[in-house]
């Protein structure tokens, strides 16, 4: 074009116009790798770490209270005193032989489940948090404190009586779980209602059901489990040291027998904290122990009539399905109720906030 000088076609020395970014690196608004953007969720590890920190701070409030430690000591004393009283009563009636220290150790380990459940629901009610994970971890820490107080007592009694020390370790694990699960029930009971009286009432009903009502209901339902079945004749019967049948073969024709299908209601009693801990402890106590039959009684009921009446339906011991540990069903019932109450309480609380 006339009058306008034309630049040579990108000759050497010709540069494109350069522009400087406003801010000059002072403003960093570019996303970085590993940095969560808007609306993204934090990493799962960070969530667990934050929850663990909140749970420790929540549990530390309990650890700094003398009432908390007094409650723990009272719970251990309750288990020990109840065990000694029950064993003395059983000795007087001739139900067990003269082995009071060992029997007291075994029964005390089982009865630790009761104070763990009752204290757990009280602690959970008093220490509520918006996060279920925080409440579960905080309850586990409180349960660990209770179990660490009970462990030296169990070890002293167990060593002095020659009892199975593995039972003390099993009791510690179950106590931690019981305090955590019942803590969720207590916190959920409080969150379900706006008034304190209603929350306390629900927590009391739950504690009463799991610590006494489930066993009473099981006893009431037992007569309805009786039924007629067919069985043949067992031969080549093998027994363990305690006299229990371990293996057999079946011959002959079938005949009718009356049996009790206790497996239909045993799962209900398994949610009782003491019976649950006893069923776990039965795996660590020798069959010839004086009170082994007490610990294995619930598992015996959960296995059904085949333990009492062999050759049901003409099936030998090899054809029976392996028994499922009854403690698993007890934990499942407790966990289901704890989740239902805790999640339901949280939703009801959020609904009240929106109203």
Largest sheet: 2 strands, antiparallel
Strand content: 5-15%
- Shape, principal axes of CA atoms: globular
What are the low-pLDDT stretches, counting only 5+ consecutive residues below 50?
Answer: 6-16, 18-35
Roughly what is the average pLDDT, rounded to an integer? 83
Transmembrane segments: 66-91, 103-125, 132-159, 165-187, 199-222, 326-345
Region (Disordered): 22-46
Keywords: Membrane, Transmembrane, Transmembrane helix
Task: Pick out its properties.
355 residues; mainly alpha; two-stranded antiparallel sheet; 12 helices; 2 strands; 59% helix; 8% strand
Architecture overview:
The protein has helices spanning 44-63, 66-92, 100-111, 113-126, 132-161, 166-192, 196-221, 263-269, 273-281, 292-295, 297-302, 326-354, and strands at 226-239, 245-260. The chain is mostly helical. Strands 1-2 form a two-stranded antiparallel sheet. A hairpin with a 5-residue loop joins strand 1 and strand 2. Helix 4 runs parallel beside helix 6 and helix 8 packs across helix 12.
């Amino acid at each position: 074009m006339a009058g306008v000088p034309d630049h040579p076609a990108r000759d050497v020395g010709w540069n494109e116009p350069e522009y400087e970014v406003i801010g000059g690196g002072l403003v960093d608004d570019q996303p970085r790798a590993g940095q969560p953007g808007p609306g993204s969720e934090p990493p799962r590890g960070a969530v667990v770490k934050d929850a663990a920190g909140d749970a420790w701070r929540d549990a530390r409030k309990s650890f700094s209270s003398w009432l908390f430690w007094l409650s723990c000591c009272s719970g251990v004393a309750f288990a020990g005193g109840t065990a000694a009283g029950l064993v003395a009563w059983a000795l007087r009636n001739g139900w067990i032989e003269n082995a009071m220290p060992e029997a007291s150790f075994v029964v005390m380990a089982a009865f630790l489940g009761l104070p763990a459940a009752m204290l757990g629901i009280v602690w959970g009610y008093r220490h509520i948090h918006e996060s279920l994970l925080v409440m579960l971890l905080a309850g586990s820490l409180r349960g660990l404190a209770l179990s660490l107080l009970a462990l030296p007592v169990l070890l002293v009694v167990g060593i002095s009586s020659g009892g199975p020390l593995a039972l003390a370790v099993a009791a510690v694990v179950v106590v931690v779980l019981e305090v955590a699960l019942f803590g969720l029930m207590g916190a959920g009971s409080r969150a379900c209602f706006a008034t304190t009286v209603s929350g306390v009432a629900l927590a009391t009903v739950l504690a009463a059901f799991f610590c006494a009502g489930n066993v009473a209901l099981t006893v009431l339902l037992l007569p309805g489990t009786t039924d007629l079945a067919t069985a043949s004749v067992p031969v080549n019967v093998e027994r363990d040291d305690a006299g229990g049948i371990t293996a057999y073969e079946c011959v002959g024709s079938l005949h009718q027998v009356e049996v009790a299908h206790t497996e239909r209601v045993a799962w209900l009693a398994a949610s009782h904290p003491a019976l649950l801990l006893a069923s776990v402890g039965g795996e660590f106590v020798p069959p010839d122990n004086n009170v082994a039959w007490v610990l294995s009684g619930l598992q015996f009921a959960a296995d059904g009539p085949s333990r009492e009446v062999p050759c049901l339906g003409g099936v030998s011991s090899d054809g029976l399905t392996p028994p499922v540990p009854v403690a698993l069903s007890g934990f499942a019932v407790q966990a289901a109720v704890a989740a239902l109450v805790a999640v339901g309480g949280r939703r009801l609380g959020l609904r009240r906030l929106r109203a």
